[in-house]
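Hi V.,

You were right to ask for the full record rather than a summary. Here it is.
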Amino acid sequence: MKNKIVIWATDENEKKQLLAIELIEAENMVNIYQFPEETVTEAFQNSLMNDWKNGQEVEFVEGYSTLTRPLSVTDDLLPETLRVDRADVITRAKAEWHFVVLSNKLYELYHSELADIKEKVDRMESYSSAVWEEMKGFWNKVQTQVQQKNLFREQANNLRKDTNEIFDRLKSMRKVMDNKFKEESKEQLHNFQTKVSELREKIEGGKSLQPIFEELKRLQSKFSKTKFTRDDRNKVWSKIDEAFKFLKEKKYGKAGGGSGNSQKARLENRLKGLLGAIDRMKKSIEKDLRDKRNQSNQAEGAFGQLEAQLREARIGMIEERISSKQEKLKDMLKTKGELEQRIEKEIKREEKAKLQVEIKAKAEEKRQEIKKQIAETEISDEEKAKLEAAALAIKEAKGKKNKAVEEVKTLNETAEAESTKEETTEGSTGEPDEPNKEETIGEKVEDLIDQAEDIVEDVVEKVKSAAGNARDKIEDFVEDMTTKNKEEE
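Predicted structure:
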């Protein structure tokens, strides 16, 4: 975007004049150089067109006059006494130059703000995170203006160069601070590890566990207030957590006094982590709200309309960020309610499962008593002999039955084949049918089985009688426990 124009115009006396119009950005003024037609040569016009417009020095011919006018949004760029053939060129230049002046003012505003920050950094003796955040906010503003093309490339490059220099100085200060912090963190890591090791030795030495537990709690509280690097913090936390688990194992045994792997324990751990996340989200929203209030207060003292508009845009971004976080917080609170309901159900389920275990244990105890009563029931030697003979008879009878059935089946197949053959050649003889051999043998075998079963029934009747009372006891016990379970539900 050029700040110089060369154009022919006609004055009030209808005389041609070559106009060289120049924008003076810093003063928000326009210089208009008027060259009468008779003083303009072809070479001079080309010099203005090709050299002067592009920023090169050109010696003006004698006889020109200079007119200075303020650059105004409402007033015309040229006086009424001068008319040009291409009025659109003047109109476009007026609009562009007004933008150039505003952009230059914005650049000067940012340059002044950056100079203030640089002076502040020069006075600093150590790194300040507040100044770092201030620089980040400043550069974000500059980038926004560059993206919206409110600053020119040269202006943006100058601001970027000065900004990078300040960031480099802050990084150097932060590196010194980080090295010091790492050394302090290593020292604290060593102190905490030594203390935890001493407490573990006390636990292993059989010392009273309650005082050690209280000391571990105090150490944990101190740990939460001590600054560490991320790796050192993880190491210390791991040591303290192992010490707590070791103490609980010594006190309650390997079970640790509770079902740490149960579904309920996992849900409670999830809820604990979620509550921490909810707390952090609330604090983040509160921080954004404070930032919004600060931006609103600073907007009242903004340098002109551009700065005020920039503040409004920043407030809008903060409001969008707050809205997004509030939606996330809403989802987290919903999840919290669901987890609490699941934990409550899990508690009831575990109580019910515990009751079922007790019922099964008591039922098993009753069954063992009944088994013992049946085992103590006396059977005479004669009854035992009859029982063994009956079992043997049943086994032999079933074997004979299966063999007889196979033989009869084979005879039937042969008879059917012969009958079919005779009917085909000679026809029916009219003689009476022979008795069914399968039915005759089967009936005899069934009689043997029935006799053996009668013997078995007589022998075991005594056992059934002895177990009757025991069976009634089991049924009564199961019915009582089932009723109790339903009442508790």
